[in-house]
Design a protein that fits this description.
The complex is a heterodimer of chains A (88) and B (616). Chain A is of the alpha+beta class. In chain A, 16% of the residues lie in helices and 35% in strands. Chain A has one domain: Ferrous iron transport protein A (FeoA) (SH3 type barrels), CATH 2.30.30. Chain B folds into 3 domains: 199 residues, Rossmann fold, CATH 3.40.50; 141 residues, no CATH class; 168 residues, no CATH class. In chain B, strand 2 and strand 3 form a beta hairpin. Classes of the chains: A alpha+beta (88), B alpha/beta (616).
Chain lengths: 88, 616
């Protein structure tokens, strides 16, 4: 069972797959930049750090790179949690 | 005669492109500008093993051929042969971060499809291995259909192989280009890139990455901002502390030069021009080269390590309160060195309103041209004592001046966002690259280029304005009992300015210095030096330093008001010119100058009257 949520609700260090991106809610150039960073359905993401003031922006691992985006944009990205490996 | 073959070095930001460019061309580089846009054009030469010369152009980093910034637009236009001032490259050198192929191959695939002869540098292969990633170079070469060479640009590994590969590509007749390349569905392209990247991975051992461990501290919500504040504090203390010795050498050298010239030349107009005008004026400015280089050293090192982007991340939320984005942090920090590269660096800000606001407040960052002025006034009027262990009073005053500049920039941005520049904003997206040890050669090259730019300024605009001022200050010659700086043409002009600035405590000397300081802020110092030199007897000149002369002529409130004026320092022709270019018109530069003048006047006035009221 996997829970769906948005990227900005994901706890630090939680790995998830992108389920969908609400491209329509983003401006044209913002959407383009997110695509260039590699945000796309099925890609693995993991929030790594939060900004010191107001927990914004977020540093997110996407694929093999780390990018900083604001919380408002992270909200447009729906994710499904990757079940922790067999809960060892 | 056929032109020298041109190879474009192209790739994503943070692929190590410029490091590879430096490794290939060494110091044989030229920095220029593309016509019409203020994007810097970096070119360099190298010789192929068979002796043929080759020209390399380092294109701005881009994520694709679909630009979202003026820099990326230049990269696309050069690659399509549409950029004014650049011919179509004969070949491409694509630089990839070996540890980030999933992302970088996206752009690389677009580039390969352009159909130009291409070599791919699989760069930073050592860091990929450190992260536990083993790649199959041959497989990648087969998938991409172009030569792939492993490189570690900062250690010059793979550089000879790259040169050999380029030499092989450029044999034979020039290829006709394939056209604009196929248009791509962004998602399909991304998936193709990921598939190739996945197939090229031999093995991947998950390791706790060094970058992640460093970020855990440097981006820590509490420790991170403290470290940033400490780094900035050390930086500004170092500008003062480390420069003392080399500044002493330069001063001694200038003084010796002045004495030699005095001895060699007959007394008269020519001697006065050379000794007072050229050596006195330009020398006073060149003295500040060490401080400017120390400041640039910090900025270049912080940038090369990858820390500057982290600073932007830490600052984003605070800057968003002022209506800016964390992206503005890097241009604003660069503006501490000089507002011109700072304003040019705003091109990385995607949002036009964010960008305009950043441009308008960039001159409030204390640029290195104000350092000569601050240093002179502080060392003349602020006691050299320690207030806390390791914290000198002079350094502290300097720190306060910088903070005042930053605070007024944030306030100005806030007001601008509510008035003149409304709407837009809210975007902050940037890549956090891996931490790297900066390479000494790259930093040295950057410093060398900055030093040359500064010395050219000193030899050009500063020399010319110093000579003009010397002439204006030397004629007509004062009669007995008159002071030269009162009688001369410059003195008369200063009389007029003095009427306006007398209410804020500025004396005649300052009125005289303000006008030539329009050319470049540091000219204020050389102007004062020149005028005092002209006013003096030879005997005074030998025995008194500029600081000592100031102490005798200025009151403390006047000196403090002068410092406050320079926090805003509206005058700088180059800044106005670059603002006009970057904003495409006169509207915003005029707006900027007006608001800065008003702020400077109010701040200087308030400082003067408060200091007088406090009995200083």
């Amino acid at each position: 069972m996997t829970a769906a949520t948005s990227l900005d609700d994901l706890a630090i260090g939680t790995r998830a797959h992108i389920a969908s991106v609400d491209w329509a809610s983003l401006g044209k150039s913002e959407a383009q930049r997110l695509r260039q960073f590699g945000f796309d359905e099925g890609v693995a993401v993991e929030p790594l750090h939060l900004g010191p003031f107001g927990r914004d922006p977020l540093a997110v691992r996407v694929g093999r790179m780390t990018v900083a985006i604001r919380r408002s944009h992270a909200r447009a990205i729906r994710v499904t949690l990757i079940p922790t490996a067999l809960a060892l | 005669m056929t032109p020298v073959p041109l190879v474009a070095v192209v790739g994503n930001p943070n692929a190590g492109k410029s490091a590879l460019f430096n490794a290939l061309t060494g110091a044989r580089q030229k920095v220029g500008n593309y016509p019409g846009v203020t994007v810097e054009r970096h070119t360099g030469r190298l010789s192929l093993p068979d002796g043929r010369p080759l020209e390399l152009v380092d294109l701005p980093g881009a994520y694709g051929l679909d630009p979202t910034s003026p820099d990326e637009a230049v990269t696309r236009d050069v690659l399509l042969g549409k950029q004014k001032g650049e011919r179509l490259p004969d070949a491409l050198l694509i630089v990839l971060d070996a540890a980030n192929l999933d992302n970088h191959l996206r752009f690389a695939l677009q580039l390969i499809d352009l159909g130009l002869p291409t070599v791919v540098a699989l760069n930073m292969i050592d860091l990929a291995r450190r992260d536990g990633l083993e790649l199959d170079r041959a497989k990648l070469e087969a998938e991409l259909g172009v030569p792939v060479i492993e490189t570690v640009a900062v250690r010059r590994r793979g550089v000879d192989e790259i040169i050999a590969s380029l030499a092989a590509l450029l044999i034979g007749p020039r290829r006709v280009r394939a056209g604009e390349g196929p248009s791509h569905d962004p998602f399909a392209l991304q998936r193709r890139a990921r598939a190739i990247a996945t197939s090229a991975v031999i093995s991947e051992t998950p390791v706790r990455r060094l970058t992640h461990r460093l970020d855990a501290v440097l981006l820590h919500p509490f420790v991170g901002p403290l470290i940033l504040a400490a780094i900035l504090f050390v930086m500004f203390q170092a500008v003062f502390a480390w420069s003392a010795t080399p500044v002493g050498w330069i001063e001694a050298g200038m003084s010796a030069l002045g004495q030699a010239a005095t001895a060699a030349l007959p007394a008269g107009v020519l001697r006065s021009l050379i000794v007072d005008g050229v050596i006195g004026g330009v020398g006073a400015v060149v003295t500040f080269l060490p401080q400017i280089l120390i400041l640039f050293l910090f900025i270049l090192v912080l940038e090369a390590t990858g820390y500057l982007v982290r600073a932007a991340f830490l600052m984003d939320r605070l800057m968003s309160r002022a209506g800016l984005s964390g992206r503005a942090f890097i241009p604003l920090l660069s503006s501490f060195a000089c507002a011109i590269p700072g304003i040019m660096a705003t091109r990385t800000i995607d949002d036009p309103k964010d960008r305009l606001t950043t441009i308008l407040v960039a001159p409030l960052m204390t640029c290195s041209a104000r350092l000569p002025v601050y240093t002179l006034i502080i060392s003349a009027f602020i006691a050299d004592r320690t207030v806390l262990p390791g914290v000198g009073l002079q350094g502290l005053v300097m720190f306060i001046l910088y903070i005042a500049g930053i605070a007024s920039a944030l306030l100005a941005a806030l007001v601008l966002r509510k008035t003149a520049v409304r709407g837009g904003g809210g975007v902050f997206m940037m890549e956090l690259p891996k931490y790297q040890l900066p390479h000494v050669k790259d930093i040295a090259l950057g410093l060398w280029q900055r030093a040359m730019i500064f010395l050219k300024r000193a030899g050009g605009i500063i020399l010319v304005s110093t000579i003009i001022l010397w002439a204006l200050a030397s004629f007509p010659v004062a009669g007995p009992g008159q002071k030269q700086s009162d009688v001369s043409i410059a003195g008369k002009i200063a009389d007029g300015i003095h009427v306006v600035v007398a209410p804020i405590g500025f004396n005649h000397d300052i009125s005289l210095a303000l006008l030539p300081a329009m050319a470049a802020r540091e000219v204020a110092v050389s102007a004062i030096a020149t005028v005092y030199a002209i006013d003096q007897t030879d005997e005074q000149r030998m025995t008194q330093s500029l600081e000592q002369r100031l102490q005798g002529r200025w009151s403390l409130p006047t000196a403090l008001a002068f410092l406050a004026w320079f926090i805003f320092a509206p005058q700088c022709i180059s800044t106005i010119a670059v603002t006009r270019r970057e904003t495409n018109g006169w509207r915003w530069p005029l707006f900027m100058v007006t608001y800065l003048f008003v702020l400077a006047y109010l701040a200087a006035g308030a400082t003067y009257w408060l200091a007088v009221a406090a009995g200083l």
